[in-house]
Write a structure and sequence with these properties.
Layout: E1 6-15, E2 18-27, E3 30-38, H1 45-48, H2 57-61, H3 69-84, H4 90-120, H5 134-158, E4 167-168, E5 171-172, H6 178-204, E6 214-219, E7 229-232, E8 237-239, E9 247-250, E10 259-262, E11 267-268, H7 271-278, H8 284-289, H9 291-294, H10 304-326, E12 342-350, E13 353-361, E14 367-373, H11 375-396, H12 401-415, E15 428-432
Parallel strand pairs: 6-11
Antiparallel strand pairs: 1-2, 1-15, 2-3, 4-5, 6-7, 7-8, 9-10, 12-13, 13-14
Helix pairs in contact: 4-5, 4-10, 5-6, 6-10, 7-10, 11-12
């Protein structure tokens, strides 16, 4: 096989936010050109928010993604607050943490149970799991139980699991009822053993793809998806408002998405980066019960991103239980939002990595300019380079075309990009030249 030339075309990879194609040119037994073509539809959100009242923009941009709507809502809300000089109360910050924990539980569970587990069981889809097989049958039910617990936590605290309604600039318009929080806690306690089992499954997984790269994430102690400073595995530590100054936009002619480099080099964001940089800051109960698994980090194995996500689910469960037990939510006066001219920066950790918002506002509080940096765009160059290495290793080992196709699919899924939900349905075309 290595003496032949091929074109490998992955066509019309459907995903939540558009489509992606993958084109690979193999010449002389080597992958000489890799093009990860993100062809998602232009929706012009950065232009669409111009002239809008900044107070209403967080709810507007939450429509960017149904899966990560709470991430966009939260990051944009933070940007508006920073621009207007608003400092939310501690209770509001706690409510946001609970809301965000629900998002992480739901989002990671969807990725790990529904899209990745079939790879571990040599299945094309979770629909192929055998109901007569005790393990497979149990995992299908676990998937929906864990996902439901995350959804319900979001609903109790923020009104809805998708496009939440209670979170506003500066405050929440409604507090969760004690009986609702008690029920949410019971659900979290019920699924906790299931998550420990999921962690063990990914710990025992033998998938491996190691490559030295830079890991970048927002980091804080205690562990937080919403606060901290930008850290990198190369030693960089910067305030979140300076993040964009360390990024370099890379125009990719064949892709609708702009790529990014961090300090001039490719890098990776996401759960693996977060645990590589901040595992010591996880909730104490999480550290105790996953101590064996945390020894895997720091790791250069891209597939360890799946294990990192499973551990993050446990952290979110443990932190949420503690917050529900220790915090008594009381009625608070609404925060007065006074528009002013200025720039607001918001940086949080979305499920798939660091999310950046910049909003420039005039004195009436209307948006003049908006800039968004999305995690999947940041991972694009790193993922593309990984695919090239993977293909060349497969060609050198004279692996079959089917093996290379399957390994590319698995590697793409490990990054958990927006298009992971459709990567079980990839279509490859191999053209012999």
């Amino acid at each position: 096989m290595h003496t032949q030339d091929f074109d490998i075309n992955l066509e019309n990879l459907a995903k939540i936010e558009g489509h992606t194609d993958l084109e690979i040119k193999v010449r002389g037994g080597k992958a000489v050109d890799i093009k990860l073509k993100i062809t998602e539809n232009k929706r012009f959100y950065t232009q669409g928010v111009r002239g809008k009242d900044a107070r209403s923009v967080p709810n507007l941009v939450s429509r960017i993604c149904g899966t990560c709507s709470i991430a966009h809502l939260t990051c944009c809300t933070e940007a508006v607050e920073h621009g207007f000089g608003i400092h939310p109360t501690e209770q509001t910050r706690i409510l946001r943490r609970l809301t965000y924990n629900g998002l992480i539980i739901r989002d990671h569970a969807m990725h790990l149970y529904l899209f990745v587990l079939p790879d571990l069981f040599n299945k094309d889809s979770i629909l192929e799991f055998d109901e007569n097989n005790k393990i497979e049958h149990s995992l299908v039910h676990d998937a929906f139980d864990v996902k439901r617990a995350g959804n319900n936590l979001c609903t109790v605290v923020a009104g809805r699991a998708v496009h939440a309604t209670f979170m506003q600039v500066g405050s929440f318009i409604k507090n969760p009822l004690p009986e609702e929080l008690k029920k949410a806690k019971e659900e979290l306690l019920a699924v906790r053993p299931k998550v420990l089992g999921l962690i063990d499954i990914f710990y025992k997984c033998d998938f491996e793809f190691n490559r030295n790269t830079r890991f970048v994430a927002l980091a804080a102690n205690p562990f937080s998806f919403l606060d901290g400073e930008i850290l990198s595995s190369t030693g960089t530590c910067i305030p979140e408002e300076l993040f964009f100054e360390h990024l370099e936009r890379v125009v990719i002619p064949y892709s609708q998405a702009t790529g990014f480099e961090f300090e001039g080099k490719d890098y990776m964001v996401g759960a693996l980066s977060r645990l590589n940089l901040s595992k010591q800051s996880l909730h104490r109960q999480t550290r105790k019960d996953s101590s064996k698994y945390l020894k895997e980090f720091p790791s250069n194995n891209v597939y360890a991103n799946n294990l990192a996500q499973a551990i993050e689910i446990l952290h979110c469960i443990d932190e949420s239980i503690e917050l529900i037990d220790t915090w008594e939510f009381k009625a608070e006066p609404r925060v007065e939002v006074k528009p002013r001219e200025g720039t607001g920066i918001g940086v949080i950790e979305a499920p798939r990595g660091t999310l950046y918002y910049r909003l420039d506002m005039n004195k009436e509080g209307l948006i003049k300019f908006a800039n968004l940096v999305i995690p999947s765009a940041q991972n694009q160059i790193n993922m593309e380079n990984d695919v090239k290495i993977l293909v060349n290793e497969g060609l050198e080992d004279e692996q079959s075309k089917e093996w290379i196709q399957h390994e590319i699919e698995k590697l793409v899924r490990a990054y958990d990009p927006c298009m992971s939900c459709a990567s079980h349905f990839l279509k490859f075309k191999w053209k012999k030249i």
